[in-house]
């Protein structure tokens, strides 16, 4: 056989290979699994919790879908500032959790404690009774243990991971 592989390929094939490689790199960069979530700190009566932030539909779905256990002292904040209602579908939950809905001022406007994964179809969907823009997802019992009651303000600030 004479010549290298490159010399035997026609120009169209080479361009298709290059385009496919570029597409793979772009898709990997856009994949939510490859993006690092922002990290915040929630100050409570019992200390501080580290809170991961999911602020887009893709990140919310990824964060809930991969949450198969809570790490000690950690929680998740689902932000719905894109106009979608702040609802949590129990089919997306894989672990029991406390759900606390926050308004734009971080005041707790609704909560459901000890919500579990879906046991069978149709799966319940949890929607706040009052206007909310985010949902704080905490390990079961953490909301009550931390003194996070209706009407209280969740003191959330930037944190270093």
Quick overview:
Helix content is 24%, strand content 30%.
Topology of this protein?
Elements: H1 5-8, H2 11-30, E1 38-44, E2 47-54, H3 57-66, E3 74-79, E4 88-89, E5 97-102, E6 108-115, E7 125-126, E8 134-138, H4 142-145, E9 155-158
Parallel strand pairs: 2-3
Antiparallel strand pairs: 1-2, 1-9, 3-8, 4-7, 5-6, 5-8
Number of strands: 9
- The domain tally reads 1
The CATH architecture designation is Sandwich
Secondary structure class reads: alpha+beta
CATH superfamily: Protein of unknown function DUF192
Radius of gyration: 22 Å
Low-confidence stretches: 31-36
Provide tags for this entry.
30% strand, Jelly Rolls
Outline the structure in words:
With 161 residues, the chain is an alpha+beta fold. The protein has one domain: Protein of unknown function DUF192 (Jelly Rolls), CATH 2.60.120.1140. Helices cover 24% and strands 30% of the residues. The protein is built from 4 helices and 9 strands. The strands form 2 sheets. It has a 7-stranded mixed sheet. Strands 4-7 form a two-stranded antiparallel ribbon. Strand 5 and strand 6 form a beta hairpin. The chain is elongated, with a radius of gyration of 22 Å. About 4% of the residues have low confidence.
């Amino acid at each position: 056989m004479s010549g290298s592989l490159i010399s035997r390929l026609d120009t169209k094939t080479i361009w298709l290979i290059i385009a496919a490689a570029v597409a793979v790199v772009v898709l990997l960069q856009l994949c939510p699994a490859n993006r690092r979530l922002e990290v915040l700190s929630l100050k409570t009566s019992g200390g501080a919790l580290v809170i991961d932030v999911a602020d887009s539909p893709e990140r919310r779905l990824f964060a809930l879908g991969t949450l198969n256990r809570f790490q000690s002292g950690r929680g998740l904040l689902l932000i719905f500032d894109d106009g979608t209602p702040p609802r949590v579908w129990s089919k997306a939950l894989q672990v029991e959790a406390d759900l606390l809905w926050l308004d734009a001022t971080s005041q707790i406007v609704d909560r459901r404690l000890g919500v579990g994964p879906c046991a069978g179809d149709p799966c319940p969907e949890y929607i706040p009774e009052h206007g909310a823009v985010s949902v704080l997802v905490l390990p079961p019992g953490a909301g009550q243990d931390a003194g996070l009651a209706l009407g209280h303000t969740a003191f959330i600030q930037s944190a270093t991971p």
